[in-house]
User: Which sequence fits this backbone?
């Protein structure tokens, strides 16, 4: 992301990655059972699709025009433990 952000910044293009954690969704039968979480989630719950969508809206909307080269972890603090 950082290399792309530097390369595309002169064209006023921002580059960011969104890294979701455990999200509460319906799994298709072909996906198998939900994997066992190997880290506790400090917020004590799974995230929602709406929470991921809210971050995407922020990044692509007018509030996100000065954010570039970032990987944003939306995971309820999962990687803090």
Assistant:
């Amino acid at each position: 992301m950082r290399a792309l952000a530097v390369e595309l910044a002169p064209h006023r293009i921002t580059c960011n990655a969104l890294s979701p954690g455990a999200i509460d969704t319906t799994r298709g039968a072909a996906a198998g059972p939900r994997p066992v979480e190997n880290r506790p989630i400090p917020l004590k719950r799974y995230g929602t699709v709406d929470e991921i969508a809210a971050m995407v809206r922020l990044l692509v909307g007018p509030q996100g025009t000065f954010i570039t080269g970032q990987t944003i972890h939306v995971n309820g603090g999962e990687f803090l433990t």
